[in-house]
C-alpha cells in the first residue's frame, strides 16, 4: 500500500468543514485504489495570526517543502485588514515554493446550472494556465508625497504628449504607483507547461495579453509565446486581448482548450470562468511547481458568515483534492473523484444552497465517498 | 435654430459606414428638436497613416480642441502593428484632451438577446465610469537585457521572501516591466463624477480594485474613494475586487447602478458589460472632459472583413451619437434617439447579423431616423 504524507491547512471560516469532506473523499479513494494518506494538520490562518502574530514562518515553510502537495482550505477573516492574510500566507506560499502554474479547470459538470444560455457541458470544458509568481503580483509599488511626484507625473503624461506643447500643473499632486515584472524564464516555463498540456488535450493554446496598451510587459510575453509556439508546430494558437476574452468566455466558451495568461489577468478571467462553470462552489485550483511543492485549494474565500452551518458546497475542495492526488501520481483515483462528484449531482440531484438547494456539506462528502467505494 | 459644429473621424474598416448612420440619425433629431449640426470631417486612421506617416498632429489636436465633442468611428487595421493606431490616435486624443471619464452605459434594450439566463432589461441597467488617463495606460515600461536585471528581479522576489533564506538564480534572465500610476487629483475627479451621476440615478456607487494584492496603487484608490464617499452620505457604496465583479456582472447585474473603476480594470469589465447587453454592436462609449473636448465612439473595432457590406450593426455608433448630443446640451434629443433605437428593435424586429438576423446597416439608420421624425 502506497503511503503519502500530506500537510493540510484548513484555514479560516468554512475552511475546516470543506477540507474535512475533501479528506473523507480522498481517504475513500485511497481505500478503493490502494493508497493511504497520512494527514498532517497546520493551524495557519486568522486565529493563529491573531493569537501569535505569526502568518507563516520560514521554519514552517521549510518543513512544508519536504512534501509534494499541500491541501488548503480557505484563508480570510473580517477581523484582519484586506491583503494581510492573503499576502502573508497564500501568496507567501505561492512565491516561496515557486508554484509558477495556477491551474484552473473550467468545466461545466453534467447536472450543474450555468448562468449562460444555450450552453451545455460539451461547450464549457477548458483549462486556464495562469502564471502565478510574477507580473503585477510581485508587490513593488509606492507613493510619492505632495510635491515630490512632479517628475514622475510629467514623465508619464509626456509619453502621449511629449511632442505636444501641453501645460500640465502637477505641483500639488500625490501619486501612487505599482510595478509589474515578468522574466524570460518565468514566462517561458508557464507557456511551455500550457503547450505540454495542450498536446494531451485538443492541441489549441490561446494566449491572453493587452499588448496594444501595456506593450512593454505584454509585448515581451507575446514574443516568448511565439518562440515556444514555434517548437509545437502541431498546436494551434491565437492571441486574445484580455478585454475581448471576457466576452468570448460568455459567448463562445467552446473556442477554448488551454488558455495561458499572465498572473493578474488570470486572476480576473478565472473568476469569470468559475461563474460560467456554475459558481465558486464548484471551482478548484492548483498552485503547481512540477518539481517541488504544490498546493491545492478551492478558489473561493472563507465565507465566515456560513461557518459551522454545514450548508456550504464542498465540491470545489473535493475537486481540488482530486487534482492533489493526481499530482501525487494517483491519476486513476483522481479521475474517479471527478466522476463521482458528477454522478452524485446527477443521480442524487445534489444541490447545496449556492446551487439553489439545501443539501448538507457533510452529506455531499459522504455520498461522493460512497459512490467511489461502490463503483 | 441652434447651430453646432462637430468634427467627425470616420476612421478605418466599417467606421465610415456606421458613422454615416449616426450622422443621419443626429440630423433627424436636429430637424425634430430644432438644432443643426455642421459636420467637419477628418481623415485620420490607417490609410492616412500609411499614406502620410502621420497619426494625428499637434496642429490637428489644437484645432479639434475648439470643439466640445468629436464623433469617432473606429480605428484599427491589420496592415499596422497592434498598438500603433490605438496609441497614436485614440489614446493620444484621450490624453491630449484630458478626457478623464470613459462613460459606458450597460443597458439591455427591450427586444435584445442577452447571453445570460433569466435576465431582462430591468436587471441590466447600470453605468460604468472608467478612469481614462492614468493607471497602467500611462505607457511607462521597459526591458532589461540579459544580466542587467539581476537587481530588479531580486528586489521583486524578495518582497515575499526577504525574511526567508531563498537562493534565487537570476544571472541569465531578461525581464520586462510596466508601471502604473494614479494621482490624487486624477482619482478624485473621476470618483466625484461617479458620485454626481449616482445622485441623479439610484444613489449607489460600486468601486472596483484589487487592493488585496496591488495594494500600493489601489490602496490609494480606496482611500480617495472613501474620502469622496464621505461627502455623499446619501449614496450607498461598496468595494469589489475586480476578479469578483466579473462574476457579479454575470450573476447579479441588477446589483449595480454606477460602477467606478481604474482604467485597466475598466477596459476589461466594460467589454464583459458590452457582452451582457447584447454584444459589441450595441455598446457605446464616451470619452469625456466635462470642461473640454469630449469624444464619442462605439466601443467595437473596425471589423475590416465586413467593410462595405452594409451588414454591420450601427446601433453602438448611433447610441454614441445620442451621448454626444446629450453632452452638447440636447438632452431631450439624446433621449429620443435611445428610445427610437429601442422602438425600432421591438416594432420592426431589427436584427443585424451580429444579432442573428440580416437587417442592413443603412436600413437601421433610416428606420431610426424616421421614427424620431414621426414620433
Ligand atoms: C485571495 C487572492 C490573493 C487570490 C489572488 O488574487 O490570486 C485569489 O483571488 C485567487 O485567485 O487565488
Ligand atoms: C483599442 C484600445 C486601446 C482601447 C482601450 O484599451 O482602452 C479599447 O479597448 C477601449 O476599451 O476603448
TrEMBL record, chains A, B:
Its EC number is 1.1.1.85. Residues 5-368 form the Isopropylmalate dehydrogenase-like domain. Keywords: Manganese, Metal-binding, NAD, Oxidoreductase. It is an enzyme of class 1 (oxidoreductase). SMART domains: Iso_dh (SM01329). Signal peptide: none annotated. Gene3D superfamilies: Isopropylmalate Dehydrogenase (3.40.718.10). The keyword Protease does not apply. It holds the Pfam family Iso_dh. GO terms for molecular function: 3-isopropylmalate dehydrogenase activity; magnesium ion binding; NAD binding. The keyword NAD applies. Its cofactor is Mn(2+); Mg(2+). Coiled coil: none annotated. This is 3-isopropylmalate dehydrogenase. The lineage of its organism: Archaea, Methanobacteriati, Methanobacteriota, Stenosarchaea group, Methanomicrobia.
Amino acid at each position: 500500500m502506497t503511503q503519502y504524507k500530506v500537510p493540510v491547512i484548513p484555514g479560516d471560516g468554512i475552511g475546516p468543514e470543506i477540507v474535512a469532506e475533501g479528506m473523507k473523499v480522498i481517504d475513500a479513494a485511497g481505500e478503493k485504489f490502494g493508497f493511504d494518506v497520512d494527514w498532517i494538520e497546520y493551524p495557519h490562518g486568522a486565529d493563529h495570526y491573531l493569537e501569535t502574530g505569526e502568518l507563516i514562518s520560514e521554519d514552517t515553510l521549510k518543513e512544508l517543502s519536504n512534501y509534494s502537495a499541500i491541501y488548503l482550505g480557505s484563508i480570510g477573516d473580517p477581523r484582519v485588514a484586506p491583503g494581510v492574510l492573503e499576502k502573508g500566507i497564500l501568496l507567501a506560499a505561492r512565491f516561496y515554493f515557486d508554484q509558477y502554474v495556477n491551474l484552473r479547470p473550467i468545466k461545466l459538470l453534467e447536472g450543474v446550472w450555468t448562468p449562460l444560455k444555450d450552453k451545455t457541458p460539451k461547450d464549457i470544458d477548458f483549462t486556464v494556465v495562469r502564471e502565478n509568481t510574477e507580473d503585477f503580483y510581485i508587490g513593488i509599488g509606492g507613493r510619492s508625497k505632495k510635491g515630490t511626484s512632479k517628475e514622475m507625473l510629467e514623465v508619464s503624461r509626456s509619453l502621449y504628449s511629449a511632442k505636444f506643447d501641453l501645460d500640465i500643473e502637477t505641483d500639488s499632486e500625490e501619486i501612487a504607483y505599482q510595478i509589474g515584472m515578468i522574466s524570460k524564464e518565468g514566462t517561458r516555463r508557464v507557456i511551455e507547461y500550457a503547450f505540454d498540456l495542450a498536446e494531451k488535450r485538443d492541441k489549441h493554446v490561446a494566449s491572453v495579453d493587452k499588448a496594444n496598451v501595456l506593450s512593454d510587459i505584454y509585448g515581451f510575453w507575446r514574443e516568448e509565446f511565439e518562440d515556444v509556439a514555434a517548437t509545437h508546430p502541431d498546436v494551434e494558437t491565437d492571441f486574445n486581448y484580455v478585454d475581448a476574452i471576457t466576452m468570448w468566455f460568455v459567448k463562445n466558451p467552446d473556442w477554448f482548450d488551454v488558455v495561458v495568461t499572465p498572473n493578474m489577468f488570470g486572476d480576473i478571467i478565472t473568476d469569470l470562468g468559475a461563474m460560467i462553470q456554475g459558481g465558486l462552489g464548484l471551482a478548484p485550483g492548483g498552485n503547481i511547481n512540477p518539481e517541488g511543492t504544490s498546493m491545492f485549494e478551492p478558489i473561493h474565500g472563507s465565507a465566515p458568515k456560513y461557518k459551522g452551518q454545514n450548508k456550504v458546497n464542498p465540491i470545489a475542495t473535493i475537486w481540488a483534492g482530486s487534482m492533489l492526488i493526481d499530482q501525487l501520481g494517483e491519476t486513476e483515483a483522481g479521475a474517479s473523484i471527478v466522476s463521482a462528484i458528477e454522478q452524485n449531482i446527477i443521480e442524487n440531484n445534489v444541490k447545496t444552497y449556492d446551487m439553489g438547494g439545501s443539501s448538507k456539506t457533510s452529506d455531499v462528502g459522504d455520498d461522493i465517498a460512497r459512490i467511489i467505494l461502490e463503483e
